[in-house]
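ugh finaly. both done.
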Amino acid sequence: MLTAEQQLAELVRGVVDLVQKDELLDRLREGRPLKIKAGFDPTRPDLHLGHTVLLQKMRQFQDLGHEVTFLVGDFTAMVGDPTGQNEMRPRLTREEVLSSAKTYQEQAFRVLDPDRTVVRYNSEWLGSLSLDKVVELAAKRTVARTLERRDFRERLAEHRDIYLHELLYPLLQGYDSVMLESDVELGGTDQLFNLMVGRDLMQRHGQRPQIVMTTPILEGIDARIENGQVVGKKMSKSADNYVGLTDPPVDMFRKCMQIDDGVIWRFYELLSSRTTAEIEALRAQNDPLHCKAAFAHEVVARFHGSERAAQAEATFRATYLGDAVPADVPEVTIPAAGQKLLLAKALAHAKLVASNGEGRRLISGGGVEVDGQVERDPLRELAPGSAYLVRVGSKNRRFCRIRVDS
């Protein structure tokens, strides 16, 4: 059993906002399991490592013996959180929300301990709120305070519409904390405003206000160090810079190995289960390849098991650090109607590149191999009735067998 001070040292690692630190220490010193709440609006089913930053912080609380509630915002998801949006989010149906919620939970339990996780749906109390209760709740917050929120403020300045139901969202999320009587609410940095509304509402309902903790928004695997700072787009599927929780082990390992040598320590800080001392010991070795491989192994083992992590590492080393060809190379057949096919067009058809133009640029730069030979002619044609083993990229190698149908 760790002391309150030792627990605090672990829990604050990687945290951006903490309101209030002294209050958290006081409650840890009480020696009872704290009620930890984190809400998730299931607006989409797919999760990646960026989502696990928050889930991992929840797991830390679980491992320290605290009570964690995974709150499914099935009601609030249909309202739509405007966080980070300059326009109203599209409304979702209940069927869409519940479908996403099912897969969301399944993936979340790859990080959380399902036996120690309380799952609640906020429709339990929000769905039965009568109009007089909604008015009573709205009376506890001023319009001026609500319009302090950045996305609302930006829309006002740009004369964009703000809909009344959007102003209710922070109140509804805050009311969740009242109903759960949470000690601590966790969320990403983009949720700070909503979390603070919950703290305020709890006080107005005569409750001890919750402590607020936010975790960073994780950058993608293409992030870089500039002037000592990590810069880059946030991890997302649309930016194709993500590591998906359901990615195959080799793909997951390969993507982790693409992380910049300097950026890998941010991933360690936010996602690794190693202690601070263990991470510093790794850093002192000054061996980026070993450190990234250790992180990649840890991530794959977490989601696929130790045996598959070892297999993924062996495959990666043979294929991407050597000259081997993966055993599971995908095959694509492209109709050509008896005509020759431009290699650049074939690359785009096989989804190895985003467009014909990108294919031509990659070929010109020596980033494409055909049957083991580097191809630099952007006008290279593939003959109908033939098959080719194509490799794209060097650090991030992707293979495909392209068959040109005659």
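ok and the 2nd:
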Amino acid sequence: MVSTPEPPSPEATAAAQGQMNKETAIAQANLNAVDYVTPYGNITTTQTGTWSDGTPKYTQTTALSDAQQAVLDQTQGAQLNLATIANDQSAFLNEYLDKPFTFDNNSAETWAYDLASPRILQQQQQNEDQLRSTLAAKGIREGSAAWNAEMQRLTNANTDQLNQLALTGRQQAYNEALSTYNAPINTISALMSGSQVTGPNTATSATSQTPVAGVDYTGLVNQKYQADLANSRSAMGGLFGLLGAGISAFSDRRLKENIRKVGETFNGTPIYVYNFIGDLTPQMGVMAQELAEKQPEAVVMDPSGYLKVLYAEVR
């Protein structure tokens, strides 16, 4: 039968495509549910049930070698010990952190001065004695403008040196005081970090995954529909040519024989293959009597008494 094919149902096509995608995923999982055997231990993959939709559910079980299990036990024991110590020491921080960090600048400057000034002052005195000797050798008298200018330069340099001593000493003292204050906090942080050491890893062999190509069911359905549609249009080409030509032709059932239905027009009028009585040439068209029931305007009576069809009007 030649007829315009019905377009595929989007819902049915999507449902079929989804089912095929699921089956592809299951096949992929089955092919790749392999076991691993390594020097560090084994990994076993087993199906342990199904999900609510029937999809297989898998479980991977890792079993370490005796040596690796011993390493893991020791590592976890060390982690527990460190975590316990960190927990005990953290209680100390409640009271400790209630006291904010403080720093005494004056004490730091005094500490630095007491530490370094004896050597610096000795050196400054030597520099002053040397300058006096140098000025006297040049004939510059004490109390002169040149003398006073050189002595003032030396005094400024000595003052800058002592100021630098105070600043450097204060920064060093501040860093040491802050480091001392942070020591308990850093200790507990180190313990907490140590308690998170990662255990031994079971290395798996580099097994390639087996791919399973999916089925483009939606594309196949659409291709078949397009092919069926093209075949339908090709088979009905002769009739559509008559429609486009605007001709009228005898189509009275009484003039035909070997009648076989092959399709329908867009309006549902049956289309037949036949031959006229006395002429074995195959023809395609409608029956005037049937068309008259739906489209009487497309049927005319020939003076011979037989019905003709105005194919340009056929729908």
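summary for the 2nd one i guess: Residues 78-194 form one domain.
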